[in-house]
Sequence to fold (132 residues):
Amino acid sequence: MSLLALGDTERSSHPATVPACTVRFAHPSERLFAVLLDVNGLRWTYEPVEFALRWNEDGEPTSGFRPDFWLPDHRCFVELTTADQRLVTRKNAKVRRLRELYPEVLLVVVYQRQFRALLAHHGLELPSANAA
Fold:
């Protein structure tokens, strides 16, 4: 899917109309990140698109990757990767595959150390030591 196609189906998700507190996130770290986006006045959409990564012989997708956030004003996706190392390794493989198949897609991956530093900068912390 091209970024232009994404714009055709993009939901309007400005902090003023869809605050982080009204979205159902997969993990508390995503909610914290959304709150930081809201506080800084950045528009975002949560998991708006899934990119197919592998297909079966009939051409049907068998594997995909859904980045956590789309930042329309920056035309980039953000993926939070704050899980334990074995899950990070698997996610990194998906990120490499996405970049191989969709070189036009800008994806920023935020790792646990970076995310904790960002939270600390804003006087926040993850609710538990084990994040998704």
